[in-house]
Amino acid sequence: MSRKFSRVLIVTDAWHPQVNGVVRTLMSTAHELRQMGVRVDMITPALFKTLPCPSYPEIRLSLTTSRRIERLIEQMRPDALHIATEGPLGWAARNAAVRHGWQFTTAYHTRFPEYVNARTGIPVDWLYRLFRKFHRPSAAVLVPTASMIGDLQEHGFSNVTYWTRGVDHEIFYPRCEQKPIDPANPIFIYVGRLAVEKNVEAFLALDLPGVKWVAGEGPLGAELRRRYSDARWTGVLSQPELAELYSRADVFVFPSKTDTFGLVMVEAMACGLPVAAFPVVGPIDVVGDSGAGCLDQDLRTACLRALEISRSAAIAHAKTFTWALATEQFYAALVPLTPIVSAALAPQNEITHPQKEVTYE
Fold it and tell me: What is d(CA 350, CA 354) in angstroms, rounded to the nearest whole number?
């Protein structure tokens, strides 16, 4: 690697107890960086008082100021700063960095303009204008797929850089690689948030043979359970439990049209599940023409065709995704922070763990 960073600070609004691809990505990346000998500190909502996000109480919004985040950054004295999300912590860190002329990188994990539009009706163009403002000072905007890079560039983003995703193959692997499909009773499964932007009802409303399984929670959970009581609902599961569930199903259905990547698709394929999805950003890049799934504008057609795909094809494709490779891309995109320690901050005042959850394993 061309640069050497011994201390990396990641600022994120997405953290435990949230269960989603952003949290999993950041945890896996931090773990891989530590394996490389890099110290990783985190500024997360665990450090602050929080309020529930309107219409989505599972997400907590941190109550803090840019000045407080500035002091934390100075105390941690990182070699590189990465701002992972566009929430209150992300904006506070971004504003502090701009004020001091500190270099930093950002990431575009989630298509918030489309999500917020789906929930509130606020025009997507207005929201993209706000997000362009957030990311404009970033030395590199890290994006998980080539399609998403093109999409953001069309919306006026610059300095967009590729950062793929991985899968933990020690957890997500086939428990029964040669599992036969019961043609009369196949199992179709969805895993993810139960929210309007995930388009889950497009799956639940399909006329399919067999049964439907759903793992996850979210704002639409109660309503969807009531309307589709014939489905099997498992709630939120641990990663090993998810791997077991994937291994018992026959097709993974990914109905979202707004995801930037769709980490669950890779985890499902690693357990031997072919994917059925719409041909949109995310599935196009993760599955594409790999032969590990079927993409079709008719989701029912995609589901039925995916039943014909071998589990071995899905497993083989999933092996091309690793967190080690993804983290190398992340590390290569980092930029050195300009000197940040103010004259008033003496070296002896440095703190290594200024809060109860600075670092996570």
Answer: 9
| DSSP state string for 286-342 | HTTTSSSEEE-SSHHHHHHHHTTS-HHHHHHHHTT--HHHHHHHHHHH--PPPP---
Q: How many Cβ atoms sit within 10 Å of the Cβ of residue 337?
A: 21
Domain coverage including residue 284:
187-318
248 and 280 share a domain? yes
C-alpha distances (whole Å) from 131 to each of 23, 166, 215, 280, 347 are: 20, 26, 31, 21, 36
Say how many C-beta atoms besides its own lie within 10 A of residue 71's C-beta: 15
> Which of the four pLDDT bands, split at 50, 70 and 90, describes residue 339?
low
Secondary structure (DSSP) of 107-162: E--B-HHHHHHHHH---HHHHHHHHHHHHTT-S-EEES-HHHHHHHHHTT--SEEE
Decide: 250 and 293 in contact? Cβ < 8 Å.
no
Q: What is the pTM of this model?
A: 0.87
Count of the separate structural domains present in the chain: 2
User: Are residue 218 and residue 334 in the same domain, yes or no?
Assistant: no
CA distance 81 to 106: 9
- Per-residue pLDDT tens digits for 58-76: 778 899 999 999 999 999 9
CATH code of the domain in which 232 resides: 3.40.50.2000
* CA–CA distance, 14 with 59 (Å, rounded to integer): 8
Does 345 reside within a domain? yes
Same domain, residue pair 271 and 133: no
Q: Which residue has the tokens 């789906």?
A: 118
